[in-house]
Design goal:
260 residues, alpha+beta, Sortase, Chain: A, eight-stranded mixed barrel, 8 strands, 24% helix, 25% strand
């Protein structure tokens, strides 16, 4: 009888021990998942993005064959110098008006293809720009994604880009630090375009499509944005950090261009 009575505390202690082991194991798994998201995905994406930038630079440094097929320029390739065009956001000054129009590329970027390099000195960013904003093929690789159906770099309209703020390379983590007058460059095979930061929208809804319109203006905070055609750059990312509830928006205007 005494032996049977002593089994209860023993079983209880064993149950508590097993439960504690499960809690510790679960905690370790969660820590590993967090480490994977916050460290490993950043490490892998940054390495991939760095390789892509170097590959693009090598490719651009190679001679380009003459275009003998009579094909037209690709959509989004650099056109004539935008100086002299009316409207808010149109570049002005010798840097824009004196530069010759860069050569036109023959083919449009394929979906998920990296084809440009974005540099933002203020936050120490150098990242490849790829066509589209899909996660698997673009954003989760540490790339900056170009919104489909928005203008290409250097073209009239709105060159709109998206990037992760946290994890997977987080190229846009610090764009909240950008201020009016900061310089942003976009380099393609044909030219280097310089945009100057002009306005910010600290928070808006993910559904606010007005921020990437050809003439960008928030559909929600209608006092923020532009009212006339120009040559715009839009950067978008999630906010606040570690959340996708809202979007943070930074706008810039094209201020100069030069051939590569």
């Amino acid at each position: 009888m005494r032996g049977r009575g002593g089994g209860g505390p023993h079983l209880l202690a064993r149950g508590l021990w097993v439960s504690a082991e499960l809690v510790v194991t679960l905690g370790v798994v969660l820590l590993l998942l967090v480490a994977h998201q916050l460290w490993w995905t950043n490490r892998e994406a940054r390495a991939d993005a760095g390789r892509t930038v170097r590959s693009l630079q090598r490719e651009w440094d190679e001679p380009v064959p003459e275009n003998t097929d009579g094909g037209g320029a690709r959509e989004g390739s650099p056109g004539p110098s935008p100086s002299g065009r009316g409207g808010e956001g149109a570049p002005a000054g010798p840097a824009a008006s004196d530069a010759p129009a860069p050569a036109r590329s023959r083919t449009a970027p394929r979906w998920d293809q990296a084809y440009a390099v974005l540099r933002i000195p203020r936050i120490g960013l150098t990242a490849p720009v790829a066509e589209g904003t899909g996660k698997g093929g673009v954003l989760d690789r540490g790339y900056v994604g170009h919104y489909a159906r928005t203008a290409q770099a250097g073209r009239a309209g709105n060159f709109a880009l998206a990037g992760h703020r946290n994890t997977h390379g987080e190229p846009f983590r610090r764009i909240d630090r950008l201020r009016s007058g900061d310089r942003i460059t976009v380099e393609t095979r044909d030219a280097v375009y310089t945009y100057t930061v002009d306005k910010r929208l600290a928070r808006t809804a993910p559904s606010d499509s007005g921020v990437i319109a050809p003439v960008p203006r928030s559909n929600i905070t209608t006092s923020v944005g532009y009212s006339t055609p120009g040559y715009y750059l839009t950067l978008t990312t999630c906010t606040p950090e570690f959340s996708s509830r809202y979007r943070l928006v930074v706008w810039g205007k094209l201020t100069s261009m030069r051939p590569r």
